[in-house]
Design a protein that fits this description.
Layout: H1 2-16, E1 19-26, H2 28-31, E2 40-47, H3 50-54, E3 62-66, E4 71-77, H4 78-86, H5 90-96, E5 101-104, H6 106-119, H7 122-140, E6 144-146, H8 147-166, H9 174-177, H10 183-197, E7 204-206, H11 209-225, H12 236-248
Parallel strand pairs: 2-4
Antiparallel strand pairs: 1-2, 1-5, 3-4, 6-7
């Protein structure tokens, strides 16, 4: 599958006349709780040639694709990515620290990760994760629940709790988040992960009151502790330098 993904990225570079600087897996396959029929959620950062950045006019800064064999691709232009980094955008940070990597320009990835740590805004990322958890709570309180809903809610609830307790960006790998949950919750989650790994996304699981109650408690904890968190460091000059550096060097391909 990795070769197929890299071939698709090469095709994108050629057809769109861009250079891909960084490409990873996102979603359940990166988080560690994929179902057999889960898509491959390929996320990437790319750059155009210099004329694109010198144009007076706004142009598209996103490339998306979906293939018949479940490759779900979405990429952001370099300028868009750097601007989002300044805001400590949580999805972008997850891309930068994904455990499943397809390609990287090493110098670019190193600088972006370093700046991500310096720009990290606990309050901005917590609000992102808190909002996502809340979006799934109605689904999690039904009598029968898609396990995807449970795991999306659990991951973001634990990510928020991690930020409050550690003041750092949470691990992308769900298993690295798990130890901050109580032992009985960890045991139930591992049981559910095994079920999810053997059932398609359409599978409906009987409501787990233990999990739902834990989610409600964690949402409350995250809300009550949000106001104590700080914001990120402003890094405008440093981000400008990264943008200029990778805008002006020669176009290459994977």
């Amino acid at each position: 599958m990795e070769k197929k993904i890299l071939d698709k990225l090469k095709e994108i570079e050629k057809s769109k006349n861009v250079e891909i600087l960084y490409a990873v897996e996102s979603g359940s396959r990166a988080w560690g709780f994929a179902s057999p029929d889960s898509d491959y959620e390929i996320r990437f950062i790319y750059k155009h040639d210099l004329d694109y950045y010198l144009s007076l006019w706004e142009q598209t800064d996103v490339i998306e694709f979906m293939t018949e064999d479940d490759l779900d691709g979405s990429g952001w232009d370099l300028r868009k990515a750097v601007r989002l980094l300044a805001k400590s955008n949580a999805p972008l940070l997850e891309w930068l620290f994904s455990p499943v990597e397809y390609y990287e320009n090493e110098a670019f990835a190193t600088q972006m990760r370093d700046l991500a740590k310096q720009c990290f805004s606990p309050i901005a990322c917590l609000h992102h994760y808190l909002g996502t958890t809340k979006n799934f709570m109605d689904f999690c309180e039904q009598e029968h629940v898609k396990l995807k809903s449970y795991f999306y809610a659990l991951r973001t609830a634990l990510a928020g709790k991690w930020i409050i307790e550690n003041n750092t960006f949470p691990p992308v790998d769900f298993m690295e988040l798990l130890p901050i949950a109580p032992l009985n919750i960890q045991e139930k989650i591992i049981e559910l992960m095994a079920i999810k790994a053997n059932n398609n996304e359409t599978y409906l699981h009987p409501k787990e009151v233990l999990i739902t109650d834990f989610l409600l408690e964690t949402v409350k904890f995250n809300q009550e502790n949000a106001s104590a968190l700080g914001s990120g460091k402003k890094m405008s000059l440093e981000l400008d330098e990264v943008f200029r550096e990778f805008t002006f060097y020669n176009l290459k391909t994977i």
